Amino acid sequence: FWREPIVKDGRTLSFDDAMQEFKDTTGRPGPATWDLGAFPAGQEDFPVRGVSWYEANAFAAWAGKLLPTVHHWRQAAPPIIFSNILEYSNFSGKGVAKAGEYSGIGPYGTFDMAGNVREWCWNPVGDRRYNLGGAWNTPPYLYQEADAVSPFDRAPINGFRTVMLRTAEPVNAALLGPVTSLTRDYSGEVPVSDREYEIYRRLYDYDASDLKSTVESMDESQEHWRIERVSYAAAYGAERIPAYLFLPKGVAPPYQTVVYFPHSGGDYLSSFEFAEMNYLGFIVRSKRALLLPMYKGSYERKLSKPLSGPNARRDLTVARMKDLRRSVDYLLTRNDVIPDRLAYFGVSLGARLGVIGLAVEPRFRTAVLWSGGFPMGPRVPEIDEINFAPRVKTPVLMLNGRQDFTFPIESSQKPMFKWLGTPEGDKHHGIYDGGHVFPFARIIKDTLDWLDKYLGVPK
């Protein structure tokens, strides 16, 4: 059943050597989450997890089935309805669930293709294999993002599902081949001139006007912070920007304040998930306030239909950056905020767009960017990050995974870090073992140390 050569570091392993790679916690054959060759007690209805691609593929062969190709998987989990799937799938951050426990169901009756455990697919890309759908402890946008990891990866969030063909015909060879990822070569690109940039920058300006801010509700039920739901006028149209302001308990104002820009999961969900405080809460517990604006197109302001083209993406990005600047305007009206102690914090999409935000909004004293980089696809010049990066002067901490598939280290992370206009002594690129999403607990210390350095240690 082990039909594919088992290749590690360019060397094909013998069967006996390969089997040494696939042991449980007690050294017996089995998934990495098992012990004594058996699954944990009470988990007979849970997905098998902690398996490599090789183990998943061998099981599929034993069962007379196949691992799905990326194309089969995407057919069963199309993007057109995925916003509904996300809201009913296990991205809880609390742990793996029984198969089918969550009600997120695909158009062909499949459960758990979004979240719970991510799933191995057949196709290679370089020396990796695709692993799709996201998991219980990843942001929900990974349901739709391409991801690929080492076929030896046995992370506890790795699972799989098998497929059975309806006919005896073999799978078309074209479907089994490598699925290359979108790449953009920044090595020969240069940013636009200062004159051109100034034209683009003016798109992000707006006339000063009354914020008409209001506190809509307050919540004192949390142990470490109280929550104010506020809103204020956007810089365009008659729209308003709702926002959640988390204020630390037991700390006297005024506060240093961090403004958050989320990952793209915010574009797919209809309301802010407080589960995100599982990894954002450390900021408030460090005695700082945290502002989470609902940027245009995210959460409560989710678009009614997908963007129609590059110019629509441009208009949305400009509106979002105006929302960011307007949020700073709002904070500066509050007497419980230290006006010159503001920081920007972006994750994934928020880290990528942070390059634009920091260029057009100079009032941030520092910034932290998790899992970001230059985009792998083309952008119209008005929102192309390479045109904005050299104009950033703010101290920036970039923290990334070495095996990030969304923002690869050589073609995305390093070009962004290189082009940042921040003085060399005030920017740092920290690289950790892991992919696009890795245990964020690893980088909390580095983040807090950076904020302490540039904002000061809160009292």
- Per the CATH scheme, the topology name of the largest domain is Rossmann fold
Count of spatially separate domains: 2
Portion in beta strands: 15-25%
How large is the radius of gyration? 23 Å
Proportion of residues in helical segments: 10-25%
Sheet with the most strands: spatial strand order: 7-8-9-11-10-12-13-14-15
> How many strands, which pairing sense, and closed or not: the largest β-sheet?
9 strands, mixed
CATH superfamily of the largest domain: Alpha/Beta hydrolase fold, catalytic domain
Number of helices: 12
Give the class from helix and strand content and strand pairing: alpha/beta
| Amino-to-carboxy terminus distance | 62 Å
* Mean pLDDT over all positions: 93
Please count the beta strands (DSSP E, at least 2 residues each).
Answer: 15
CATH class membership of the largest domain: Alpha Beta
CATH architecture of the largest domain: 3-Layer(aba) Sandwich
Q: Give the H and E element order.
A: EEHHHHEEEEHHEEEEHEHEHEHEHEH
Shape: globular
Flag low-confidence runs. none
